[in-house]
Structure formats: C-alpha cells, structure tokens
Amino acid sequence: MSRVFFTRLFDLLVVLFGVSIIVFLMIRLIPGDAVAIMLGANTEITPERLAELNRRIGLDRPVIEQYLIWAGAALRGDFGTSLWTGRPVAGEILIHLWPTLELTFLALFIGALLAVPVGCLMAQTRGGMADVTMRVGAIAGLTIPSFWLGIVLILLLSSLAPGFSSLGYVPFSEDPLGNLERMLLPAFALALPILANLSRLVRSAMLDALGQDYVRTARAKGLSERRVVYKHALRNALIPFLTSVGIMTGYLLGGAIVVEQVFAIPGLGRLILGAIAERNYPLIQATILVVTAGFVLVNFIVDMLYMLVDPRVRA
To answer: Where in the sequence is the domain holding 140, given as residue range(s)?
Structure first.
C-alpha cells in the first residue's frame, strides 16, 4: 500500500507542476499588452509607467526566470502582492477561502448524505412508482442550473418567510445559527445537481450489487432485507460512489463561483471575478492555482479512501 501511496503522491506533484506552468503562462498568452490593460483606460499610458509596472511584476525578466522566481515564492506561500490593494495575495485568499470551503463541503455533505438512501430506495423499488418519480426528479436536478435555482429559492423564501436571512455571510465563530441560516439555501442550490447525479450512480451500482451471488447467499441465510442492502450490497456500491464524490468536489468549487455571486457570499468566487474585472493578474494566478490544487488534493484523498474500501486496488 505504501508503494501505491507514493506513486499517487508523485502523480499529484506532477499534476501540480503542470498546472503551475499553465496558470503562470495564462497572463502571457492574453492578446494585447497585459500591462497596458492593468494600467486602465483612465490612466495616461507612458513608456515610463509601462516600464515601472513591468519591473514591479517582473515581466522584464526572461520567462523561465520569471517562472522559477514565482514558483519558488509560491512554494513558500508567497504569491506576491495585489496590484490594487498592495496587500499580500496569500492573505486575501485566506480571508475569502473559508466561505468557499464551507459552502462547498456543506453542499457536498447534503448531496452525498441524501444520495445514498435515495439511490438505495430507487434500487429497491426498481420499476415502481417511487423509482420512476425519483428518476424524473434526478433528471430535473441535473438540468436545473444552480444559479437559477438559487434565485428561485431566494424569491420563494422572501415571500414565504420574509424574516429569514438568505443573503450575505456571517462567520460561524461569531454566530453559528446565523451562519447556517445564510448558508443553507446556497448549499442546497449547489447540492441539487450532485444529489441527482450521485443518487443515479448509487442506484445503478446497487442494482448490480443486489444481483451478485453473495447477496443471494445472505438472503438465503435469513438476513433481513435492510441488513442485506445496507451492510452487504452497499459497501461494494460505494466504490464508484467515492470516486465520483472526488470528481464532484471539483465541479462544486467551480459552481460555487456563480452561487456566491447570487447569494452575496464573499468567497473565492467573488474574489476571482473581482480580480478579473480589475485585471489583477497576480491575484488571479494565485487563486486559480489554489482552487486547482484543492481539487487535485481532494482526488488524492479519494484515491486513498478507494484503496481502503476496495483492497484489490492495493495490489
């Protein structure tokens, strides 16, 4: 198992290395003079100003040297300073990181927690009215955009419960109930596509598991149907489920960008969009690198859990 662990860890480092190169080159592949764009239309663009900003960002050096300096600083947690505020980029990311992580993992928790019993129920009632109804609902959940669902939920809540706070963000440490009150709707809007996708996956995996010989043997021993489904069949059905959860986490991080705008949550999504609007490239590079590294790290953890659930992968 240690050999597989270090192999996966090496793959993770290689992926992060490749991502860092792509993120670094993004600013240099943009058509036009990126430095002139940073100065803005309301600033008199002179050769002196261009030279100063080039020197400040380090664009006056060779590309390879620029990357080595940037990557070396990034490994130490130094992503440079914001072009507009002058504050360290790492500090700004840390301020906005927790709301995004909370929204992402709360949505993942809701979606994954509900997907297992819903998928099992769909498999047990295969072909019945409950199965057909939930399958139609799952298809609808896959097609409804999270931002549209968020807007609809805000409108419904404002008419049904005007006193319920659904916009903005309150840190959990300051007001736990207020935090959950504001995060519940965006988390549900973000979780619905995940719930729909994972429940269909669990249904398919459970139908396959319930047809195996060991399940028929368990039933022949007189075990209850609940024990057969949730103890024997579900463990094997969770193998593809765990893999999909890791992939879904990456999509949740991307979807959180839009949902944060709808619910006015000051997370990484709003930070990235604000940095794009301001042409704040050091902040854009660092934020995208952090989000991508989080996605890769989650998939690494899922690989390790996959080996614990399925010992055959360790070989």
So the answer is: 96-314
Instruction: Quick: pLDDT tens for 149-193.
Output: 888 888 887 777 776 777 788 888 888 888 888 888 888 888 888
Spatial separation of the C-alpha atoms in residues 218 and 236, rounded to whole Å? 14
The answer on 169 and 63 residing in a single domain is: no
Q: Please give, one letter per residue, the 3-state secondary structure of 196-226.
A: HHHHHHHHHHHHHHHCCHHHHHHHHCCCCHH
Using left for φ > 0, alpha for ψ between -120 and 50, and beta otherwise, residue 171 falls in beta
Any idea which residue has 């944060």 for tokens? 260
Q: Dump the DSSP string for 217-270.
A: HHHHTT--HHHIIIIIIHHHHHHHHHHHHHHHHHHHHHHHHHHHHHTT--SHHH
Q: Kindly state whether residues 297 and 202 are assigned to the same domain.
A: yes
The pTM of this model reads: 0.76
Q: Cα 118 to the chain's mean position, in Å? A: 23
- Distance from C-alpha of 248 to C-alpha of 194, rounded to nearest angstrom: 7
